[in-house]
Design brief:
With 310 residues, the chain is an all-alpha fold. It has helices at 2-42, 46-59, 63-75, 79-92, 98-109, 113-126, 131-143, 147-160, 165-177, 181-194, 204-210, 214-227, 231-244, 247-259, 265-270, 281-304. Helix 10 runs antiparallel to helix 11.
Length: 310
Amino acid sequence: MMIAWFCCSLTTAMAQDDESTRRQKLAEKLTWLYNMGVEMEQQGEYGKAVKCYREFVMLEPDDIIYSRLAICYEELNEYESALYCIGKAMELAPEEYDYIYIRADLLYYTGKCKEAVEAYDEFIEKDPDYWGGYYRRGFMKDNLNDVDGAIADYSKAIELNPDLAYSYLGRADKYLLKGDREAAMSDYRMVVALDTIYVENNCAQYAYLALGEVEKAKAFQQEILALSPSAGHYYDAACLYARMGDREASLGYLRKSLEKGFRNFSHIRNDDDLNILRDMQGYKDLMEEYEAKYKEEQKQQKRSLQLFLP
């Protein structure tokens, strides 16, 4: 009887030791995968980061890692996979309403503007004091031609954060559409007053143009491009020159942005700045060319990455 008890106890102890060792090894591997994923993400190696994060969640589902996956897939222009991952993060941590914010933007990037607005409605209900929710919802309404709704949201964003130049720019553009030139000019002047240092997201060039200072608008945009010739900044230049009525220059900058990797085709098609280009054969050919390239890029990425798809 004593021998049987001893053997049973020894088996139990060994099993516990094995489980403890397994857990320790798993924790070490997860730590390594997380740290390597973060390092790759910081270096802009989003494909490599995806592989690390993906292996992590296959071993142990985690909302934070799924959210990092969503952000990496977004950087890779894989918006459907990004939506899937942020959805998994929301399932694992429904109380984390910041994930709703990420999902809303991803819905917009996949062309689901109305669903994006609804997602921001949900986010604002949970966090009514954060200016970003109102600014982003105003931007979405702006693209849906809800002029009054956009003005209301931009105004609330300004109330909560009076230092964001883009809120004034968005509201100024909508005031101008409504024929309230005095209010529009006041907001454009605020943009110029606030947006004086070249950073990642500048918008003073548009305000200078609206205020009639065309050369300042051009110089400001060129300075941005000289400091940071990114795809996004070339896209901004396309928008600026479209607002000027210079269709050829705008189309040239749009091509340059696409050459540099800009792939947010939903935004290009919804952006009213570029309406002046819509009937140009050059614009139609450019979009057809790069949408085909994007499809090929996606095929290549699917061969090198295991994408999360719904």
